[in-house]
Amino acid sequence: MKILAIDTSNYALGIAVIDGEKVIGEYITNVKKNHSIRVMPSIERLLLDCDLKPADLTKIVVAKGPGSYTGVRIGVTIAKTLAWTLNIPLVGVSSLAILASSVGRYYQGSVSPLFDARRGQIYTGLYRYEDAKFTTSVEDQILLAKDWAAQLKESSEPILFVGNDLPLHKSTLTDILGSQALFAEITEHNPRPAELALLGTDMEGEEIHSFVPNYIRLAEAESKWLEANKLKD
Q1: What is the pLDDT of residue 228?
Q2: Which residues, other chains included, contact 176 with Cβ-Cβ below 8 Å and sequence gap of 6+?
Q3: The dihedral sign for the CA sequence 133, 137, 138, 144
Q4: Burial (CB count <10 Å: 0-12, 13-18, 19+), residue 53
Q5: Are 152 and 178 in contact (CB under 8 A)?
Q6: Were both Cys, which of 117, 152, 190, 210 would link to 121 (CB 3.0–4.6 Å)?
Q7: Spatial separation of the C-alpha atoms in residues 193 and 6, rounded to whole Å
Q8: What does the CA dihedral 43, 113, 168, 215 come to, rounded to 10 degrees?
Q9: What is the structure's pLDDT at 221?
Q10: CA 75 to CA 36: how far, in whole Å?
Q11: CB-based contacts of 49: which residues, under 8 Å, 6+ apart?
């Protein structure tokens, strides 16, 4: 079962192919470049290097958000197109879950992956491994970093934070949580597309045409437009 994973939900671009219990190819970059012109060439290059043709793929797994509005949309659009064209299942996985899984598999505690959402806000959730299963303790959400830290403070439990945007919020988290806040190493902040593929391996395929990203909130431009038109009514 050859699964192609696509993650363009943030600056990091990740493409991977797994086959059963083997990662046969993985490509990751973390640079501020346009995903729309890079993702298809990256997929083509990876498949070529792995001696695979698109027809060899049996499932597409995509990071469905939250994250960059444009980035999420690009990945989901390409994934839907490929799945429809190849007539294979499409599965969406939380972009935050990918980050959490990358570090949480061997950590005996809660993991809080995060992406910056501007104005002091973060996209985050709470995950952990229990009884060899990956579970969600708190669903993905958007809120102020200080409010999230205050919530976590109530449990007195050490929390492992992970994500490339940590430097933007680390002082806020540390000021409120103190030693309760633990931070992953920089080598762990890029979400691994192979983890994405693994998370989606046993998930049921979704209806392709009705599949939509999980933005959590509207894009800023759309939100302003709706607000402006509401005022006119």
Answers
A1: 62
A2: 146, 149, 150, 153
A3: negative
A4: exposed
A5: no
A6: 117
A7: 7
A8: 60
A9: 47
A10: 8
A11: 25
